[in-house]
Amino acid sequence: MNIAIVGTGYVGLVSGACFADTGASVTCVDVDTEKIERIKRGEIPIYEPGLDELVLKNVKAGRLRFTTSLESVLNDQQIVFSAVGTPPDEDGSADLKYVLQVAKTIGQHLNKYMVVVTKSTVPVGTAKLVRQTIQTELDKRQTDIKFDVASNPEFLKEGNAIKDFMSPDRVVVGVESEMAKEMLTRLYKPFLINNFRVIFMDIPSAEMTKYAANSMLATRISFMNDIANLCERVGADVNMVRAGIGSDTRIGRKFLYAGCGYGGSCFPKDVKALIKTADGMGYSMEVLKAVERVNDAQKHVVFNKLAIAFAKEGLENKTVALWGLSFKPETDDMRESTALVTIDLLKQAGCKIKVYDPVAMTECKRRIGDTVIYARDLYDAVNDADALLLLTEWNEFRLPNWEIVSKVMNKKLLIDGRNIFEKKELESYGFEYHSIGR
C-alpha cells in the first residue's frame, strides 16, 4: 500500500517509520527543506528511543522516502495522512491553517480517488472543513473526483511511541464510507493481527475521543495534585491514598501520581482547545477549567517549598540545582515543562541556577540560552548547591550516591517534585527533605 504522511514532526515521523516497517511504501512530506535534508542524512530531529534506527532501517530498505513536494507524489498514493502541527492560537483554540493548507494542496492536484486522513489533534468539525476545502479546489478545476476524509487521532506516549504504535491498545478511526473503512482496515491489520482492536466510529466522535482521552488523563493528574496538597495540610500521605483508591477497579492505578504538574505538547494544548471548543458552542467546561488552574498552580509548588525553606535568609544569590528539564522522562521535549516555570521563578528570586538532564540540555539551551549553568552530570549539578530540586523522574536520578551528593552540597536541602525518594533514607544522610503530599 502506498501512503503519504504530511508533516515530519513527532507524530508524522514516528507514524511514517512504523508504517514502513510493516511493508507499506511511505513518503513523508514536509515544507521544511532543512529538516528533510537532515533526515535524509540520518539526523533525526526529535529524541525518541529507537526512532533513529527504525528510520534508517526503512530508508535503506527503500520503503521510506522524504520530500518537500506533496504535489509531486500525491497521485501515487492511496492514503494521505495529515500530521501537521495544530498550535494553540492566542485564545487557546487550535490553529488549523496548516491542516487546511494541506487540504487545499490536495484539492489542487488530486486526480484519482484517495482517502485523506487527519492524524493531527484537531477540534470536532475539522474533517468537515477539510472536505469543504478539497471540494472547493476541485470545483475551481471543474473536476469531479471522488475522495473520502477520515479521522485517525494518535495516542502515542513520548518515550514509548514506537511500542505504542506497533502494539496499540486501540486504534480509533472515524469514517463516513465503507471504502475508507476497508482501506484503513487493510493498513492497520499488520499491527493488530493477534487482537484486532480498531474502533470504527463516525468522524466527529473520533475527533472528540482524542480530546476527551487527554483531558481525562489531565483531570486525574490535577485531581491527585489537589488531593496531595490537602494531604500535606491534614497529615496524610498521598502515596497511601493513591494505593487505596487505585485498588478500586472502577478507578484503577494509572495516572494517580502526585507531582509538580503536567506539561508536554498534548495535555496543556488539548485541555485548552476543548475548553475553547465548548465556549464556542455556548457551554462552559467547568471541570477542565479547574484542571487547568490546578495545574498552573502546581508548577509553582516546588519553588514555593524552596522559598519557605529559605524564608529567613532569602533566596538571592543562592545556588539551586535542578535534576530534570524535560516534561517527562525519555524525551527532550520541554514544552510546558515545570522546569521552565521553575527556572523563571528562580531567576526572579536572584538565584544562581545549575541544571542537568540526560537528553534535554540542548533543547534547554535553545530555549533559554546561557542564562543557567549546564552541568556535566548530576553530581556536577549539585556541587556547591544550596538546594536540589528534582523535577523529572529520569531513571538515573533514582539511585544516586547520596554520600557524594551530601558532601558536595553547601546545604542539604532536597525538594522532590516527583516523589521518587524516601524521606527516611534522605534524612539518614542529613538532608532536609520535602516532597509532594507526604
TrEMBL record:
Molecular function in Gene Ontology: NAD binding; UDP-glucose 6-dehydrogenase activity
Entry binding sites for NAD(+): 30, 35, 86, 121, 158, 269, 335
Residues given in the record as substrate binding sites: 155-158, 210, 255-259, 263, 328
Swiss-Prot/TrEMBL catalytic activity: UDP-alpha-D-glucose + 2 NAD(+) + H2O = UDP-alpha-D-glucuronate + 2 NADH + 3 H(+)
Pathway per the UniProt entry: Nucleotide-sugar biosynthesis; UDP-alpha-D-glucuronate biosynthesis; UDP-alpha-D-glucuronate from UDP-alpha-D-glucose: step 1/1
Protein name as catalogued: UDP-glucose 6-dehydrogenase
Function: Catalyzes the conversion of UDP-glucose into UDP-glucuronate, one of the precursors of teichuronic acid.
Superkingdom per UniProt: Bacteria
Stretches assigned to the UDP-glucose/GDP-mannose dehydrogenase C-terminal domain: 321-423
Organism in which the protein naturally occurs: Hoylesella shahii DSM 15611 = JCM 12083
GO biological process entries: polysaccharide biosynthetic process; UDP-glucuronate biosynthetic process
Annotated family: Belongs to the UDP-glucose/GDP-mannose dehydrogenase family.
EC numbers: 1.1.1.22
Pfam families registered for this protein in UniProt: UDPG_MGDP_dh, UDPG_MGDP_dh_C, UDPG_MGDP_dh_N
Membrane-spanning intervals of the chain: none
Keywords for this protein: NAD, Oxidoreductase
Gene3D superfamilies named among the record's database cross-references: Cytochrome c1, transmembrane anchor, C-terminal, NAD(P)-binding Rossmann-like Domain
Alphabetized NCBIfam families for the sequence: NDP-sugDHase
Residues annotated as catalytic: 266 (nucleophile)
